[in-house]
Amino acid sequence: MPKIEVSPRFINISLNMSSKTLNIHYHALLIFLTITLSNTNIRTEGVIGINWGRENSQRLIPSMVVDLILQNRVPEARIYSDQTDLLKAFAGSGISLTIQIFDLELVGTPEAAKAWVQSRALWFTASNVRRVFIGRYVFFAGDAESQNSTINALFNTQEALNAAGYGDLIKATMPQPYQILKNITKPSEAEFQDWYKQDLLRFLSIIKANNAPYCLELFPMDTMMILNITDMGFVFPDNKSTHVVTDVNGAVYTDVFTFAYDAYAWALEKLGFQDLKIVVSLVGWPTDGYPGANVPNAERFYKAFLPLIASGKGTPKRPGNPIDAFVHSITDENKNPVAYPFGRHWGIYRSNGEPKYKIDLTGQGRDIFPVTAKGVMQMPRRWCVIDEKALAGNEKKLEFQHERACEQADCTSTFEGGSCSGLSPTQNVSYAFNMLFQSMFQEEDECYFHGLARVVTDNPSTGSCVFPVEVVKGAQENYAGDGAKENYFGDGNRTHEMNGLVFVILLSTLWALIYN
User: Fold this and answer.
1) Inter-residue long-range contacts of 477-481, CB under 8 Å, 24+ positions, other chains counted
2) Which UniProt keywords apply (predicted)?
3) Rounded distance, CA 223 to CA 497, Å?
4) CA distance 125 to 216
């Protein structure tokens, strides 16, 4: 069972917060501790955490998110920011927190790093910060200058933490994607690419010296594409795949996760870093925007994956070695890059705080929905759709307005394989109009579209396609934050810097092979 500590300093800090926020966290924390500690027959070895990205038009307020994490009994969380308003939201919760710095100037020199540590020191203990991620996918980008500056920033950050007395508790590291390995057919063949190896060795030496983990970010379908494996079953760790990989020492792999994890274990061992802890800082399954990105597949993936993590049984390469893994993510993020349409649909929750599918975040494999967010207020049940009376002779204008709506709002559910991909042309336009209307909090002027649209109260949803009604603007607390560069690479999916068109073409080919 994960060790849960509630420091007296949490209580002192949280007493200075508003009584409303304190009550929410206090009662949720009591529920979290009572349920967790009372289940003495449940022994969770691997830690299941959750990521919270905020690249969306409608955001749950931070206190609600912390409450959700506590009530779902998730002991660790990651935010893609170091904003003080978010750190404040986690104060007193007892949740172990990972934060991230994208703006390297904040820690680009030893002096800057010391200043940054001082500016966040109040929250390190109060908000239970345990890791600081620096930058994003620096070895994948292939920029030697960027690699050097990011590693310098990492070193500066850890040195500043050590000097301030936080080094034993807070570890700085850099998350990396699977793609930085050479092409392989078996995990034991894995090696890092040669062209960045010197910088990589420097990075590994820093984290080893400070007992920090190596953090792997894994997109299962992405990894399948890289490995050129077309058996859909190999994506799911439920031992139903007909594709089996055998390796040295009798190792057998029937799923992409254990394959990728052990590939990294082998690659690190070949460089002399076999003792480094590997944390899976991101793993997820999207529910829309692409063939195969749907609720049944998300449920199937997590139904097998989370008990694997909780079991602590490890992998063939590292048997009995518990794995910490962070589910991505709490909510959808409709401002993520459109080049990866499914990248806007990683969320377990809709923007209104309702769960999309069943998932047991404790890793027990129960057939349950996660807790629904409390206190979310939705806008009135109104939708913006085409005014069919105004269509005659306005085809060109309609096409332009449709494109404009999709440029400003999220139309990825209408992409091939998405939940709304079967709409008629007229319904497609109505969907786009409504998405923009909702993202602008139902402002009347946003349902004009040069006289081609109107507001209705009859729900235009059809089949699997939901025309949403979003949450009220009042729930957008802490939207702008304190100016931290949260969106340095986009604060949600933060997809790697592969050319978007190339990625989509390759993944389209893979899905075609799988489903035909």
Assistant:
1) 477/61, 477/62, 478/59, 478/61, 478/62, 478/83, 478/85, 478/86, 478/89, 479/59, 481/81, 481/83, 481/85, 481/86
2) Disulfide bond, Glycosidase, Hydrolase, Signal
3) 15
4) 26
- Between CA 219 and CA 206 the distance in angstroms is 26
Judge residue 467's burial from the number of C-beta atoms within 10 Å of its C-beta, 0-12 exposed, 13-18 middle, 19 or more buried. buried
Contact assessment for residue 77 and residue 97, using Cβ atoms and an 8 Å cutoff: yes
Residues whose CB is less than 8 angstroms from the CB of residue 349 and which lie 6 or more positions away in sequence, other chains included: 60, 68, 330, 331, 332, 355, 356, 370, 373
Annotate 224-270 with three-state secondary structure.
HHHHCCCCHHHHCCCCCCCCCEECHHHCEECCHHHHHHHHHHHHHHH
Query: Would you give the DSSP letter of residue 385?
Result: E
Query: In terms of Cα–Cα distance, which of 5, 27, 28, 46 is closest to 364?
Result: 46
94-112 pLDDT, tens digit each: 999 999 999 999 999 999 9
Q: Which residues contact 514 (CB under 8 A, 6 or more apart)?
A: 230, 231, 232, 292
Position 289, amino acid: G
Supply the pLDDT for residue 29. 52
Number of neighbouring beta carbons within 10 Å of residue 261: 26
Residues sharing a CB contact under 8 Å with residue 90, sequence separation 6 or more, in sequence order: 62, 66, 77, 97, 127, 128
Helix axes 62-71, 19-38, angle to 10 degrees: 20
Residue 268 CB neighbour total at 10 angstroms: 20
Please state the pTM of the whole predicted model: 0.85
Q: Which two tokens stand for residue 380?
A: 């009135």
Q: 108: left (phi > 0), else alpha (psi -120 to 50), else beta?
A: alpha
DSSP string, 168-195: TT-EEE-EEEGGGBPP-SSGGG--B-GG
Residue 170 near residue 130, CB atoms below 8 Å: yes
Three-state SS for 118? Answer: helix
339-373 tens-digit pLDDT = 889 999 999 999 889 999 999 999 999 999 999 99
Residue 124 CB: number of other CB atoms within 10 A? 21
Which pair of structure tokens corresponds to residue 308?
Answer: 């694997």
Q: Which amino acid is at 104?
A: L
- Render pLDDT for 212-260 as a digit per residue (tens, 0 to 9): 999 999 999 889 989 999 999 999 999 999 999 999 999 999 999 999 9
474 pLDDT band, cuts 50/70/90, is low
**Of all helices (H) and strands (E), which one includes residue 49?**
strand 48-52
d(CA 348, CA 329): 6
Is the Cβ–Cβ distance between 460 and 307 less than 8 Å?
Answer: no
Interatomic CA distance for residues 465 and 287, integer angstroms:
12
